[in-house]
């Protein structure tokens, strides 16, 4: 495996004008002459991730964040645009070259139970990618399996057991070990802790951070939990209805959110401290947004936006533009 | 002081197993809810919090063995006839669940289902039912309520379904609303709307609320009192502000240390080692001792009782944390 030196101009991951459109349910009544509606799950998204960086991708359900994660690593084909990992365009790779890419880019899912074959022991599940990628077999594979389990806090005893014999937290450790065993440099983690109990979430978050330090990993960390995203991310991208509306270093985004949608998200989250929570509620007084209906063209947030001015916000979609340094916002008015 | 609206004493819920001792999922739970009070019960999966909530409306699986006492306005719920229970459900005590999709019948219009919920307990004004449904939907913030009442559940977004379900739950002006993870499946902006709605209901109608959640921040937002459950037991019970700022049980303290904060950057999370015990094979002594950073020999041998540490605060721990060292961080 080659370790590439990346600079700002040469990021480990570059996503350029990526789109993923799904046809919408074409049931009865959809004739040939009718234009089929499309769901723009990912709609012209661009970002870079530097080697060693964690980019947090946050958004509500239906924002397209999970689809984006899958398109980035090539688990779903893009409608248009590019995802380039370590200099190689994911869409253009076929056969062996594609396999080689997946040695570099792996995924960790929300529910490892559904991504692990219930009839495979942990040992077989972890040795499978080693065999598939021609990395190791036999005794050497066993040694690597033991190493990966150990790195993820599981003993060698786990090897002969089946996924159902483990708790949710341990299964997520197995899922992470399986991604880690091919020694990728990039991992897309899609809601890796959201199905876990609070006390187990912290274990897995700490594990992912330890592994990042130990193996020099780069993460695209996808989650709906804004506190988790703040905690793990160097930089944060906020997604709304298929588009990135704001990207900024984590501290800047949480200290001074510029996009009205980011502001809405942040003031919606209660905090586990009664004084701070009372203050949050006071500040949020009278700011309830009650009309979350979709719009046609223009800014996807315009129908809910307290700052919207018409007609521009309903007609012209704003593009992500720098406000200060590396703080980018897609809004005609925010932070201007 | 007034009488509690709900009084639970020594509640024990167990499930029998074939050829094995039964599994106890709720063990000796006791607490009161006063009229108009909002009480939050926090715990992880297996803590027994949902089973406790369901016991109040006798909504447990048939096989459950329930012992102890649950009094609603002084009446023993566990001894009520099925008819009395039906009268109580929806009219005096109602419940909202995590997933509003499974709580509505998918083939009936939302408005008709709410109307039915009203008519079951109130046969007086069938003619004005439509009006009452529209008023309820408007009250939970659903725009154009008359038209929306004609929609089917799948035509509502998750947030609208949860609002409609809440509208149905409060249709008969219950004295107590039991909400079991009412916002867990919702986006944060919708969660905020539901929390506001519950706060308004409490302030305007004096509805007492028993809120079951895994999310401590939601309790901080809504509840004056916080009950922490672990492995079927209440381990701490006190005023929310006090429990959050100076937790006395190491589990409460650890739980607070293990959640990332949205309002400030924190260093490495302090994770709780291990996992919650399997209810079929609970550890001896204090149920938390295998995971407790402070456990001593006594903790493994003898289970501590839930002890009052002040008039309003109780803790189940031999080595409870004072306002010194750890509690102050």
The total strand number of chain A stands at 12
Question: Helix fraction of chain B?
Answer: 25-40%
Q: Label the overall shape of chain B.
A: globular
What is the radius of gyration of chain B? 21 Å
CATH class of the largest domain in chain A: Alpha Beta
| Helix-strand pattern of chain B | EEEHEEHEHHHHHEHEHEEHHHEE
Superfamily at the CATH H level of the largest domain in chain A?
P-loop containing nucleotide triphosphate hydrolases
Tally of separate helices of chain A? 12
Oligomeric state, counting identical vs distinct chains: heterodimer
Question: Which word captures the global form of chain A?
Answer: globular
What's the architecture of the largest domain in chain A in CATH terms? 3-Layer(aba) Sandwich
Strand content of chain B: 15-25%
Q: Give the averaged pLDDT of chain A, no decimals.
A: 89
The poorly predicted ranges of chain A are 1-6, 27-31
Determine the structural class of chain A based on helices, strands and strand pairing: alpha/beta
**Please, how many helices of chain B?**
12
Strand element count of chain B: 12
Order of helices and strands of chain A: EEEHEEHEHHHHEHEHEEHHHHEE
Output mean pLDDT of chain B.
91
């Amino acid at each position: 495996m080659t370790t590439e030196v990346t600079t700002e101009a040469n990021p480990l991951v570059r996503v350029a004008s990526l789109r993923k459109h799904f046809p919408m349910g074409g049931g009865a009544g959809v004739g040939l002459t009718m234009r089929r509606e499309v769901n723009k799950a990912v709609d012209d998204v661009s970002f870079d991730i530097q080697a060693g960086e964690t980019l947090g991708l946050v958004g509500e359900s239906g924002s397209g964040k999970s689809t984006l994660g899958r398109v980035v690593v090539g688990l779903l084909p893009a409608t248009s645009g590019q995802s380039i990992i370590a200099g190689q365009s994911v869409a253009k790779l076929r056969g062996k070259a594609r396999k080689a890419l997946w040695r570099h880019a792996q995924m960790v899912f929300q529910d490892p139970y559904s991504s692990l074959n219930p009839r495979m022991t942990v040992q077989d599940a972890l040795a499978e990618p080693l065999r598939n990628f021609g990395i190791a077999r036999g005794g050497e594979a066993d040694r690597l399996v033991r190493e990966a389990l150990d790195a993820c806090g599981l003993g060698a005893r786990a090897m002969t057991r089946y996924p159902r014999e483990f708790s949710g937290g341990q299964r997520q450790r197995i899922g992470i070990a399986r991604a880690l065993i091919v020694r990728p440099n990039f991992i897309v983690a899609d809601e890796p802790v959201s199905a876990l109990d609070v006390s187990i979430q912290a274990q897995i978050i700490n594990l992912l951070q330890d592994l990042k330090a130990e193996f020099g990993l780069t993460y695209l960390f996808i989650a709906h939990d804004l506190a988790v995203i703040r905690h793990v991310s160097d930089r944060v991208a906020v997604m709304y209805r298929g588009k990135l509306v704001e990207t900024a270093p984590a501290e800047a985004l949480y200290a001074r959110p510029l996009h009205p949608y980011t502001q809405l998200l942040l003031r919606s989250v209660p905090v586990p401290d009664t004084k701070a929570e009372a203050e949050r509620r006071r500040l949020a007084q009278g700011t309830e947004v009650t009309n979350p209906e979709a719009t046609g063209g223009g800014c996807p947030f315009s129908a809910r936006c307290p700052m919207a001015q018409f007609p521009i916000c309903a007609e012209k979609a704003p593009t992500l533009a720098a406000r200060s340094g590396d703080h980018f916002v897609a809004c005609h008015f925010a932070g201007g | 002081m007034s009488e509690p609206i709900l009084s639970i004493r020594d509640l024990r819920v167990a499930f029998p197993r074939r050829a094995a001792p039964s599994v106890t999922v709720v063990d000796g739970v006791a607490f009161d809810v006063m009229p108009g009070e909002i009480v939050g019960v926090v715990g992880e999966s297996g803590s027994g919090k949902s089973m406790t909530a369901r016991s109040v409306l006798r909504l447990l699986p048939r096989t459950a063995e329930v012992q102890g006492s649950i009094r609603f306005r002084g009446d023993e719920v566990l001894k009520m006839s099925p008819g009395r229970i039906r009268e109580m459900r929806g009219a005096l005590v109602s419940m909202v669940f995590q997933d509003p999709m499974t709580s509505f019948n998918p083939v009936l219009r939302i408005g008709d289902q709410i109307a039915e919920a009203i008519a079951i307990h109130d046969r007086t004004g069938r003619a004005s039912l439509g009006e009452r449904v529209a008023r309820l939907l408007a009250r939970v913030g659903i725009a154009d309520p008359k038209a929306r009442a004609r929609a089917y559940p799948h035509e509502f977004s998750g947030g609208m379904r949860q609002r409609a379900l809440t509208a149905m739950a409060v249709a008969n002006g219950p004295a107590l609303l039991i909400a079991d993870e009412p916002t867990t499946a919702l986006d944060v902006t919708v969660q905020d709307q539901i929390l506001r709605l519950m706060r308004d209901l409490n302030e305007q109608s004096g509805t007492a609320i028993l809120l079951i959640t895994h999310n401590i921040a939601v309790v901080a937002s809504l509840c004056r009192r916080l009950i922490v459950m672990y492995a079927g037991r209440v381990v701490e019970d006190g005023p929310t502000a006090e429990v959050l700022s100076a937790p006395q049980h190491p589990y409460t303290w650890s739980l607070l240390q293990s959640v990332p904060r949205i309002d400030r950057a924190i260093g490495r999370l302090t994770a709780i080692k291990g996992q919650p015990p399997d209810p079929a094979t609970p550890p001896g002594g204090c149920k938390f001792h295998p995971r407790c950073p402070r456990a001593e020999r006594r903790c493994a041998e003898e289970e501590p009782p839930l002890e009052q540490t002040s008039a309003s605060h109780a803790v189940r721990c031999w080595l409870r944390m004072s306002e010194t060292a750890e509690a102050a961080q």
